[in-house]
Amino acid sequence: MTNALRALLVSATAVLAIACGTGGGDDGSAGSDVPVADVPVADVPPADVALEADPAPDPAPSDLPPADPAPADIPADLPPEDVPPADMPPADTHVPLDAPPEQTEPCHEPSFPADCEAVTAFQCGFQGECVDGLLSVDWHHHWFCDGVEEITSFHCTYQCPNGCKVVEYVDWPQDGQQLVADNCLPAPDCAVEGESVPVVPGRGKECCEGLVKVPCDKPNADGECMECDGAGVCTACGDDQCGKGENHCNCAADCANQECLGIGGKFTDFDTEGKCCAGLAPKSDCHPIDGGCSCPKCPCYVCLDCGDDFCDPERENPCNCPEDCPAP
């Protein structure tokens, strides 16, 4: 109840009291113990003052923005937030691309043959040289085992049949075949020192330049010269050196004063140097027996023309000259 309404009720009560005789008697005496003047009328508004109703609540300012409506461009069929799109893989199934594969096989250390010509690759640290026809190479190879790098060193050799092209090899060959081709001299189209050739010209190779063809005569065990027909030997006869294929029977100029044992000559000595004539080799005096070899327990040797690709049935056998007489 507002103050104006309350004042109006108080004034109405006072007027009603006067009208009902509570304000005085017929004789003009007071009709009540409370004089009229004591009724408060201060809150009674003048008759010409209009009563004002309580002001209405302040309307919302016209410049306030309206409440945000639901966006019109949001589709009604959006999937729930926790549901992944259909084209995404299910959770916990993604494997990183860079994850290393698990080791499924045991580690295998690389290996290479000791024959240089058969080596398939020289990976790192290649060093090679060729001395006196022997090609020797060192290198190393990197490989991995369970993710750990390992380094293994290798060595190989190869005997060049016709000698070396160079001593120190500075290139890096692709494989063993290229190594041999780059370092070993090719087979000549002529007969080298000590090589046998036909006596009749045009029936085989001729001696290489600088060599001369001499008879294939050789001394026997007693030093007597034994004639040889049908072949000759390419030698450096005349250089004052009793060289390969030469002896006092076919090259007296270089071997005239040579004191040596001829083919088939035998001796017993630990020192074999110079015992056999030039072109002959001291071989252990072994003989075949019961599918094997029987060799003396002494330093007993026989001078043989071993290595001429001819197995002399009288003196040579698979035990003392396997080069010319391979085992059956």
Structure summarized in a few sentences:
It contains 3 helices and 14 strands.
Describe the protein.
The protein is mainly beta and about 325 residues long. It has four domains: about 5-40; about 115-185; about 190-260, no CATH class; about 260-328, no CATH class. Helices cover about 10% and strands about 20% of the residues. The protein contains three helices and 14 strands. The protein has helices at about 5-20, 175-185, 250-255, and strands spanning about 125-130, 135-145, 150-160, 170, 195-200, 210-215, 220, 225, 230-235, 265-270, 280-285, 285-290, 290-295, 300-305. The chain has a four-stranded antiparallel β-sheet, with no helix packed on it. A three-stranded antiparallel β-sheet has the order 5-9-6, with no helix packed on it. A hairpin with a 2-residue loop joins strand 1 and strand 2. About 20% of the residues are buried. Residues about 15-40 and about 90-95 have low confidence and may be disordered.
